[in-house]
Amino acid sequence: MSDETQNEITPSVVSSEVRDFVRAHERRRRQFPRAALVGLLAGLLAVAFRYALDGADKLRDSLIALGHSYPAWGFLIPIAFGALGSGIGVFLVQRFAPEASGSGIPHLKAVLHRLRRMAWRRILLVKFCSGVFSIGGGLALGREGPTIQMGGAIGQMVSQWFKSTARERQTLIAAGAGAGLAAAFNAPLSGVIFVLEEVQRDFSPTVFTATFVACVIADVVARLLSGQLPAFHVDYHPLASLESLPVFLVLGLLAGVLGVAFNRALLASLRLFARAGHWPRGVTGAIVGAGVGWVGWFLPQALGSGHYLVEQTLAGQGTISFLLLFFALRFGLTMFSYGTGAAGGIFAPLLVLGAQIGLLTGLVAGHFFPSAAPEPTMFAVVGMAAYFTAIVRAPLTGIVLIVEMTESYSLMLPLCVACFCAYAIADLLGDKPIYEALLERDLLRSQDVPKLESNLLLELLVQHGAPFENRRIGNLMLPAGCLIITVKRSMYSHVAEPGMALQAGDRITVVVSPQAAAAVALLREGVSNRFVHHTP
Asked: Which residues form a coiled coil (predicted)?
């Protein structure tokens, strides 16, 4: 090509890149106030949800105390309260919004992957009310998962208020999810990282900045209305000695094995309760709630999200036998509670179990190797992050979340060691991350296809080890109505051609017509090495 030809082409190429940059910058600027509004509303909703649950917990505790004033028949009070609350909570979900069951995070991931639609009005109302009835009734579930899903619903709501594009809507939904986590735990960085690492898996500047703005605003609102103290009080820990690292390594291994057990038991509980699908709505919740209420008659602190148990464990209270008993009890309660399909998450329950695993490890190690485990409570802190990592498979989120919740910055190295080992063991055992396993279960059971109102424009990143890697575009067997139009590789965009082989790191732009909506799941599965398998 001659110099004159290059001089003619170069300005147009540069001007095109400048226009693209300006458009992207304008989109980000337009998203900032919307993301701030999402953060404000998500923070207010998270605080309202927290206060409602606190009120329900106090009511439950007072009724249990009242029941003990009448030893002959008083035990019926917590049983009836648990049955009523859990029954109503499950009924609301089964009757009005099945997508609001459980934590709601798998549904949120499906929405962001264009596999589901979000009816935000229904989710906000049912999730809030069902969560208050179910968790307030005593089910061993957490408020954090529901807060994340409700935050995503707020993002959808705001996107409709301002007539956003499909991409802007997805960004606001992701930002709302992060804001929900940030407000629930007073942990803004964790909200950002959770979106980037687990929920959206999109590190584009627009997603990052919108999520960051929403998380910070939501955290500020939560702190203004409910205080600036961290989620859990932990005494200051000195730097862990290198001599203690092998013990943290063992803790990570133990957390990995027990994390796999948690995931498989949770899926088994869902299969068990699915067999009762022909029962009247809410009956399974009432039965489990009655059993939970009976447990509460003897051990009221074992019910609900378990915040008190975490505080107790982080303070080093409890013997080895006590911790073993409560671990088994809370493990079983969580499985049965989540199996009902009530609106409640697993964040808080797994933190309870992780803290108990950590303290148990610290106590045993301190007995045999006192110099390697001088303070067993530091192992309880690390145990929460390691167990979270083994179950969710999001180590960065686990580390940052626990640091923000406990302000235990001095434990950064032990946290990294334990979380790496927990992740490696869970992955080595072939266990799927819990939210992906739950999403796979939902997709395989529903067997439905997303409905598109118009042509859908998707941008997908080809991951290393994905089915599409090293395959030619013409050999992907995409259905009619699904067309890859551009492939961005490094800094350059290329028009897609049938003979072009996709590489890891390529960002492909795809157009999907409404008639080819089933191809959305095929595309998601093809570009990812971790995404769930979908049977159309």
From this structure: none
